[in-house]
Known about the structure:
12 helices; about 40% helix; Spore Coat Polysaccharide Biosynthesis Protein SpsA, Chain A; alpha/beta; 7-stranded mixed sheet
Amino acid sequence: MHPGVRQYLNVLLGVLAGCIVCHVNFKPIIKDDPHCLIRNVSTSERKPRILCYLNTYPGNYEKKAIHVQNTWARRCDRHFFTSTVKHEKLSIMMLNMTEPEVRKHLWVKMRKILRQLYLFADEYDYFFKADDDTYAVVENLREAVKSHSPNFPFMVGHKWHVLCPGGYFSGGAGYLLSRAALKRIVELAIDKHPACPTIDEDKEDVKMCLCGQAVGVRLLEKFGETGVSLFYPYELQRYFKKQKSSKFKNDRSKNVFPYMRRDKMGFSSKHISFHYVNDTAMYITEFLLYYLDPYQPMTNSSKAMRPSA
């Protein structure tokens, strides 16, 4: 072999060997810990992680809970039905209750639930409480929390301005706890703070707000960028039944009825939840939201019928 060629090959082999050594030595640094991506990205830049916990009892597993799981609950990052008996199809957070699962023992049940949730406090950003007859649009909930921080202690839901100073959030419409709020309530309030009730009775939603406020959890009423409440404590039919009045009759000649305008309704297109939704309505709502896709583009006549605002 020509000496020049041999010298060239030796240099080339040396470079290749050096590259291999560098690759081996620096591979762990380049690959990095898979969790680093999470740690280096703020919660405002990644998808907020939401755990949904849904209050139920064994008698409602087949009547209500299964329909919640078949529809909206599967869009949470994780969901649990909170009760005392396992079910082959439902994800149950098992509770060790010495009292029967009835309304008058709801607060002792909720305290047990919160202690169980605390075990997941560092895995999720937000914790959404709902009932087995609540319907929630999880995508809208996830979008609304983007303008907030899970490290700020707050609760939000439909606020009733009665029963306790500052009001309380409807448990049926669902309320949201930030991670910081959950930690404060469990670490500082439940069975520890004198302003956090220990009396075993119903109205867990009232007591949640009392305990939260006692340890500096802020109760937000307006959520997201809409300026209106995004949680509705009744079924949607209730609203429209109230609206079927003289207003409908007087304006029947017009293309757009005033009560169908969002600015007249008091609802936002970013609405989050409804309460008292039966099993059939669960699937109807699911169909209308996720399967019905109106044909576009709109004709002039259909544009005229389109609700304003």
